[in-house]
């Protein structure tokens, strides 16, 4: 087709004429009233004086140094609970004892810990430290190493907490506790304080329960465990080892007034694939238990651990110490989805353990005496309810590994005999009410047999509740609170909290690390510990801000300060309105859209499944209310 | 008999209506014909890469916005990808889709600016520009809805995005992608049939595929020459492998093809947004809380994405502290600019301007 | 004073019909008309182009922004008057006047109504052509005198374009003179019982396009061409001297639209009443049409503009002249009922033929 000069220009002129007829889309603000959506606009930042504690996080977050703060050096009490304390199942006042360490008084710190935690030494070594993941310092660089500080305190205390201990008069009642694990020991401690007589029945020859058999010695040396147990022993607790209780009702008849079931979750789950009956498949919990008592089966050179939890890491590092040459961990998701403590994963990698992610076993089998394991590669698919991406197998990606031992460390569950006479759920966990009471009067349960496999600190929290309710059941007031700390003056601080990054953890040398079960971590020196403790931004105190300056000319409205504020004390105001679609614009689109929607923001297609806007800001009031919209629509119709 | 003629040197820029920023070209002219051109840049040098070395990783994100201010969201991306790889942060699926949607919106708005100002260079006195900005305004509004900003969105974060889509956003975006192709048809009427537009663009600033590859150009400048290469399809990052879209490819590598490629890419972006909106899963926009002063283990990485201007790469090296040891950007416009001399010499002065415009550079990215 | 050259429209009896009195009144009215319409045209241009582009245009100063231009004039008068150091001072001073005065002088022969015209010159058409050519010298002078390379390029382009487009302009007017048998502008109007646009549309097209180029309006605005040579010839001017050059632009627009209205649209002839009102309506319509073109089209390149003149307009104008001459020679008394359709058919055929032959761009392999 030959195109003639001029045709296309006429076409263009048609378009311009069309747009002339449509009329202007710009508006004469403010003469012409606009149909505007009210919305947040990151224009003016608002600082809430009441919420601000003067932690200087916003100042350090600002990329342009346009925030300048000055605070008083003397803090005041706010009565707020720090996030670490909130997050701790036993509500140990981490904020306070970290402060005490910072002030150079580890004994005071131990007293504060002892107020709510009767196993401080154990927790100082192996606590899962939920407090650290909640730490506000984490929004600046890295959380304060609270567990490590606790260890420093435990190692440097002088035992002065004992001075403030108050025992209640003997009540003459007797309590039997089955299981000398964290829950049982905790309950025993508080029941003894309340004046009851306590007897602990333990299946194993030593106290500690899962702390003894579930946690390898390189993490928790036995003397540390025994240090905590000894305190309870000294209080007059009676231990009966190698005693397996089959019928708890009989104990009640023997003269015990109440009973606590704290048997733990000692059974290991299988591999869940064909061929798992082979003796070379060694359940993770059994493996660790056998190693504790030195009666483990030989594991050979090539050991594969399946799973990504803390047990898997314990197993792999234990296997390494037993002399396995090639230890690898298979996990079906990726590193960031692993439930294990990242620090421990890092330690494991340091020790030379290989991690293979996105791999899942298909079957294990014997081929001419060589044990083999067939695996399959995975990829991450859609997210499941827990927010983690569900792994899906990649067809045809199978490969075979030669192994000597396979250790599945994917699950653990309690075994509660039916003779206990308590209700159980599908994972054979004991069903209890809020008071930790079972359906049988006088029988209580706490710890892993209620929780499923969980952490020491959770078991301690449950032990506390159980002790309190048993005390009430036995006629006491149920008050197990202790006041051991003498109280220190509030610490002064000039300017911002310490800007130091998380202090390094020191380890024993590699030779010992590979071949012995010696405790891996080394202690911190006084200076390091105090410097680390001073990294705390002290969420429960408030350093009153005397000057809060936001240099408007420098601010680029990047909102990093708003995002980083741990206390929501900074937010963007909604003083400014803005345009989405103007009235004129709506009529314009009508040409192509058909009838214009009733209102510019409310739309029938509105996706109900979408989550509410999760801005950092309090947006609730700004999402258009349907009422107004309907009214507007009616008005338009009336016209 | 021939008259004695003399070459003369004209400076175009740094203050000139058509330099798209503060760029300067020293033309040696013979009458109207360009004999030689010397590009001189650095007028907008702010030392962004050095500034990033002095700021924590998270504080670097607003810096990347200011590289290519016309497509800020795309500029966040390679940096965020690099940090995520080094720090081992994973991104939830929902956030990936949100990133794709926002960056495709940004691509449309950037191409609108490119084509609109191209018409301006051609003397169409802001008409096409204004019509296209009408659509761009809607996009900007939509993006403001999400981010609260109209230009420096500062949207991406390590492990997610800064803000979730507000409730009214998705219906409005759906409306926009329904209407936009029809407005596009209008612009095409104004461009592709217009004899003056054709006369000005066809065969002007031709560029051979060999040259394009040798100079390592990318983006529409590369694709206009007929080289079929788009990172979104050929090296898919994020969730681009889930979408179905075409990569428009030109034939002659002239200004017309560059405009055409950009116009087509806008349509493809609309397709991608449509699909992404349908496929977008629920869930979180964030995987975990990332601290202000994120410490990254030692290492280095190079990540690249397809920005509206081409392959935008970020080389990031960490020394284990909370600040990058080195952060370098492969700015596509900067490398495309090196093709300028090949395209310009022998052309008329008037053409030189539109060829320069068709490279579509933003000086923030070139000078950094 | 020779009667053959200067004739007052009415016999010389009362005092107000005295030649000098008439001249004075006429001059005042014409200059007032001229300036009033310049100011109004500036406002109209800004408003209408705005509306074409979906904008509002100036709307803050006075009702509907009507006195925006007045405000601009006041502002521009108080600006510092900068004379470049190395400029040619004499020419620099002279150029705005050289450009401005001739434009105003053209109005002397424009009949505002049957009986009102400053000078009814019997060679009015020649006068118009001669005087308007002087203005282009002023433009070149201003481009040259400022000692600026952009200005020089602009001036050179302008001079080349003006000279080239004079030829089709003159040729189309020649055909007009042929059918009307007079050189007097008023005579031409009186002869238009039907507007000339109907009698000879081809001449109208040629004249209109050529005069667009003469007043350097889109798509022939290569003289100013702000995306390439910033502002062209007037780049070094400021203050009142700039204002004068700016006024020249709109003065030319006023004069051209008046001339188009006079020569082709029947001048002061109206449907119901004769006189200045139909003339003003017609000239505003012509101006609006010019604006419509400006809002739509990009600019031609300088060589394409020349090619268009010499390869398209000139042959078409020649054919038109030949055709008209042939008609006046062989069929001088043809009925209008035959002439009008015939000339439209003829126009369509000629444009179709020449448009098929003419292609402004260089040849490239077809893309589509």
Describe the structure.
The complex is a heterotrimer of chains A (639), B (368) and C (368). With 639 residues, chain A is of the alpha/beta class. Chain A has 5 domains: 96 residues, no CATH class; 57 residues, 2-Layer Sandwich (Alpha-Beta Plaits); 126 residues, Fumarate Reductase Iron-sulfur Protein, Chain B, domain 2; 155 residues, FAD/NAD(P)-binding domain (3-Layer(bba) Sandwich); 140 residues, FAD/NAD(P)-binding domain, CATH 3.50.50.60. Chain A has 22 helices and 21 strands. A 5-stranded parallel beta sheet of chain A has the order 6-5-4-7-18. In chain A, strands 11-10-9-16 form a 4-stranded parallel beta sheet, covered by helices on one side. In chain A, strands 12, 13, 14 and 15 form a 4-stranded antiparallel beta sheet that branches. In chain A, α4 runs antiparallel to α5. The longest helix of chain A has 18 residues. In chain B, the strands form 3 sheets. In chain B, strands 1-2-3 form a 3-stranded antiparallel beta sheet. In chain B, strands 6-7-8 form a 3-stranded antiparallel beta sheet. In chain B, strands 4-5 form a two-stranded antiparallel ribbon. By secondary structure, chain B is of the alpha+beta class. In chain B, α4 runs antiparallel to α11, α4 runs antiparallel to α14 and α5 runs antiparallel to α6. Helix content of chain B is 48%, strand content 13%. Chain B has 15 helices and 8 strands. Chain C has one domain. In chain C, α1 packs across α10 and α3 runs antiparallel to α4. Chain C contains 13 helices and no strands. Chain C is mostly helical. The termini of chain C are far apart. The interface between B and C is large, with 41 and 37 residues.
Concise description?
The complex is a heterotrimer of chains A (639), B (368) and C (368). Chain A is an alpha/beta fold and 639 residues long. In chain A, 31% of the residues lie in helices and 15% in strands.
The poorly predicted ranges of chain C are 1-12, 363-368
Principal-axis shape of chain C: globular
Structural class determined from secondary elements of chain A: alpha/beta
Provide the succession of SSEs of chain C.
HHHHHHHHHHHHH
Approximate strand percentage of chain C: under 5%
The CATH superfamily of the largest domain in chain A bears the name: FAD/NAD(P)-binding domain
Low-confidence stretches of chain A: 30-42, 574-588, 593-639
Largest interface: A-B, 73 and 68 residues
What is the first-to-last residue Cα distance of chain C?
Answer: 67 Å
| Strand arrangement in the largest pleated sheet of chain A | 6-5-4-7-18
Backbone CA Rg of chain C: 21 Å
Radius of gyration of chain A: 32 Å
Kindly report the oligomeric state of this protein.
heterotrimer
Major β-sheet annotation of chain C: none
Q: What is the residue-mean pLDDT of chain C, rounded to a whole number? A: 82
Gross geometry of chain A: globular
CATH class of the largest domain in chain A: Alpha Beta
Helix content of chain A: 25-40%
Task: Report the count of strand segments of chain C.
Answer: 0
């Amino acid at each position: 087709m030959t195109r003639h000069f001029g045709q296309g220009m006429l076409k263009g002129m048609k378009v311009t004429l069309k747009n002339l007829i449509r009329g202007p889309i710009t508006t004469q603000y403010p003469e012409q009233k606009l149909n505007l959506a009210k919305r947040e606009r990151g224009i003016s930042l608002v600082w809430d004086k009441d919420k601000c504690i003067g932690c200087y996080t916003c100042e350090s977050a600002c990329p342009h140094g346009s925030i300048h703060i000055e605070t008083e050096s003397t803090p005041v009490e706010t009565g707020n609970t720090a996030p670490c304390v909130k997050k701790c199942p036993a509500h140990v006042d981490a904020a306070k004892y970290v402060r005490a360490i910072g002030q150079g008084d580890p004994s005071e710190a131990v007293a504060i810990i002892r107020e709510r935690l009767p196993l401080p030494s154990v927790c100082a070594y192996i606590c899962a430290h939920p407090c650290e993941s909640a730490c506000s310092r984490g929004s600046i660089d890295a959380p304060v190493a609270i567990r490590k500080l606790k260890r420093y305190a435990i190692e440097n205390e002088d035992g002065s907490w004992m001075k403030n201990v108050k025992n209640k008069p003997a009540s003459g009642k007797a309590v039997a506790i089955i299981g000398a694990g964290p829950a049982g020991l905790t309950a025993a401690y508080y029941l003894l304080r309340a004046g009851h007589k306590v007897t602990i029945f333990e299946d194993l020859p030593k106290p500690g329960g899962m702390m003894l058999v579930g946690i390898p010695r390189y993490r928790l040396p036995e003397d540390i465990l025994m240090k905590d147990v000894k305190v309870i022993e000294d209080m007059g607790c009676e231990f009966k080892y190698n005693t397996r209780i089959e019928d708890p009702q009989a104990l009640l008849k023997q003269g015990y007034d109440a009973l606590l079931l704290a048997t733990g979750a000692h059974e290991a789950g299988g591999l869940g694939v064909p061929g798992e009956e082979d003796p070379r498949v060694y359940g993770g919990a059994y493996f660790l238990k056998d190693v504790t008592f030195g009666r483990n089966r030989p594991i050979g050179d090539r050991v594969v651990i399946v799973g990504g939890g803390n047990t898997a890491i314990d197993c792999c590092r234990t296997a390494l110490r037993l002399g396995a040459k090639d230890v690898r961990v298979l996990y079906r998701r990726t590193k960031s989805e692993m439930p294990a403590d990242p620090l421990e994963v890092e330690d494991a990698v340091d020790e030379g353990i290989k991690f293979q992610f996105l791999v899942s076993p298909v079957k294990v089998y014997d081929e001419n005496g060589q044990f083999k394991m067939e695996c399959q590669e995975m990829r991450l698919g859609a997210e499941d309810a827990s927010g983690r991406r569900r792994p899906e197998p990649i067809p045809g990606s199978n490969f075979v590994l030669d192994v000597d031992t396979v250790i599945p460390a994917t699950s653990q569950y309690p075994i509660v005999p039916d003779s206990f006479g308590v209700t159980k759920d599908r994972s054979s966990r004991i069903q209890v009410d809020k008071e930790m009471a079972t359906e049988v009067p006088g029988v209580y349960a706490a710890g892993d047999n209620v929780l499923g496999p969980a952490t020491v600190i959770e078991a301690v929290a449950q032990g506390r509740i159980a002790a309190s309710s048993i005390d009430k059941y036995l006629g006491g007031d149920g008050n197990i609170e202790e006041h051991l700390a003498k109280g220190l003056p509030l610490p002064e601080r000039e300017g911002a909290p310490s800007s130091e990054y998380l202090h390094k953890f020191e380890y024993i040398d590699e030779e010992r690390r590979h071949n012995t079960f010696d405790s891996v971590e080394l202690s911190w020196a006084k200076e390091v510990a105090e410097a680390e403790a001073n990294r705390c931004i002290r969420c429960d105190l408030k350093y009153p801000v005397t000057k809060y300056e936001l240099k408007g000319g420098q601010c680029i409205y990047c909102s990093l300060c708003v995002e980083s504020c741990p206390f929501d004390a900074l937010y963007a105001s909604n003083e400014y309105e803005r345009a989405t679609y103007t009235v004129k614009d709506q009529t314009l689109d009508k040409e192509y859209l058909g009838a214009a929607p009733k209102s510019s923001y409310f739309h029938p297609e509105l996706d109900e499944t979408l989550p509410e806007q999760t801005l950092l800001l309090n947006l609730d009031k700004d999402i258009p209310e349907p009422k107004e919209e309907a009214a507007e629509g009616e008005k338009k119709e009336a016209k | 008999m021939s008259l004695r003629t003399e070459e003369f040197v004209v400076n175009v820029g740094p203050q000139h209506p058509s330099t798209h920023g503060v760029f300067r070209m020293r033309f040696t002219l013979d009458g109207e014909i360009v004999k030689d051109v010397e590009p001189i840049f650095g007028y907008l040098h702010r030392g962004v890469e050095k500034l990033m070395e002095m700021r924590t990783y998270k504080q670097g994100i607003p810096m990347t916005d200011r590289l290519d201010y016309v497509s800020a969201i795309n500029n966040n991306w390679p940096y965020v990808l690099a940090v995520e790889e080094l720090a081992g942060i994973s991104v939830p699926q929902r956030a990936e889709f949100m990133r794709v949607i926002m960056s495709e919106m940004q691509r449309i708005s950037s191409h609108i600016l490119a084509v609109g100002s191209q018409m301006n260079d051609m003397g169409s006195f802001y008409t096409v520009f204004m019509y296209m900005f009408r659509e761009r305004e809607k996009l900007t509004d939509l993006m403001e809805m999400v981010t609260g900003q109209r230009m420096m969105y500062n949207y991406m974060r390590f492990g997610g995005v800064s803000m979730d889509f507000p409730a009214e956003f998705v219906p409005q975006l759906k409306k926009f992608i329904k209407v936009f192709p029809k407005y596009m048809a209008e612009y095409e009427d104004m461009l592709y049939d217009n004899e003056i537009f054709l006369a000005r663009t066809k065969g002007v600033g031709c560029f051979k595929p060999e040259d394009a590859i040798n100079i390592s150009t990318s983006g529409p400048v590369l694709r206009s020459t007929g080289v079929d290469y788009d990172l979104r399809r050929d090296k898919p990052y994020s969730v681009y492998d889930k979408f179905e879209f075409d990569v428009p490819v030109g034939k002659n590598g002239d200004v017309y093809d560059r405009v055409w490629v950009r116009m087509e890419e806008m349509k493809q972006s609309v397709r991608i947004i449509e699909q992404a909106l349908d496929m977008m899963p629920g869930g979180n926009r964030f995987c975990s809380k990332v601290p202000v002063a994120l410490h990254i283990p030692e290492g280095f990485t190079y990540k690249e994405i397809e920005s509206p201007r081409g392959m935008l790469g970020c080389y990031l090296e960490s020394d284990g502290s909370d600040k990058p040891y080195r952060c370098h950007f492969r700015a596509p416009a900067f490398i495309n600019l090196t093709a300028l001399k090949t395209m310009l010499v022998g052309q008329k002065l008037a053409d030189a301007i539109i060829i320069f415009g068709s490279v579509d550079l933003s000086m923030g990215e070139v000078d950094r | 004073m020779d009667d053959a050259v200067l004739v007052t429209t009415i016999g010389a009896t009362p005092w107000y019909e005295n030649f000098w009195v008439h001249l004075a009144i006429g001059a005042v009215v014409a200059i007032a008309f001229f300036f009033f319409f310049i100011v109004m045209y500036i406002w109209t241009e800004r408003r209408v182009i705005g509306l074409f582009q979906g904008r509002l245009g100036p709307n803050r100063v006075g009702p509907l922004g009507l006195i925006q231009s007045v405000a601009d004039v006041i502002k521009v008068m108080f600006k510092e008057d900068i004379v470049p150091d190395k400029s040619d001072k004499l020419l620099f001073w002279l150029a705005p006047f050289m450009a401005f005065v001739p434009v105003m002088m053209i109005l002397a022969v424009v009949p505002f109504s049957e009986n009102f015209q400053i000078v009814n010159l019997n060679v009015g058409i020649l006068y118009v052509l001669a005087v308007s050519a002087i203005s282009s010298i002023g433009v070149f002078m201003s481009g040259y005198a400022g000692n600026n390379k952009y200005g020089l390029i602009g001036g050179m382009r302008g001079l080349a374009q003006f000279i080239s487009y004079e030829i089709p302009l003159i040729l189309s007017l020649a055909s007009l003179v042929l059918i009307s048998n007079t050189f007097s502008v008023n005579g031409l109007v009186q002869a238009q019982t039907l507007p000339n646009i109907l009698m000879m549309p081809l001449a109208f097209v040629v004249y209109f396009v050529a005069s667009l180029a003469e007043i350097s309006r889109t798509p022939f605005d290569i003289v100013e061409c702000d995306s390439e040579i910033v502002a062209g010839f007037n780049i070094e001017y400021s203050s009142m001297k700039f204002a004068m050059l700016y006024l020249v632009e709109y003065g030319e627009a006023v004069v051209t639209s008046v001339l188009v209205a006079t020569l082709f649209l029947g001048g002061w002839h109206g449907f119901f009443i004769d006189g200045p009102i139909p003339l003003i309506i017609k000239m505003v319509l012509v101006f609006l049409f010019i604006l419509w073109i400006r809002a739509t089209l990009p600019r031609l390149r300088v060589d394409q503009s020349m090619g268009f003149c010499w390869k398209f307009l000139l042959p078409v104008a020649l054919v038109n002249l030949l055709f008209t001459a042939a008609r006046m020679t062989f069929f001088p008394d043809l009925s209008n009922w035959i002439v009008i359709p015939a000339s439209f058919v003829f126009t369509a055929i000629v444009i179709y033929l020449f448009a098929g032959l003419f292609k402004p761009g260089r040849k490239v392999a077809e893309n589509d």
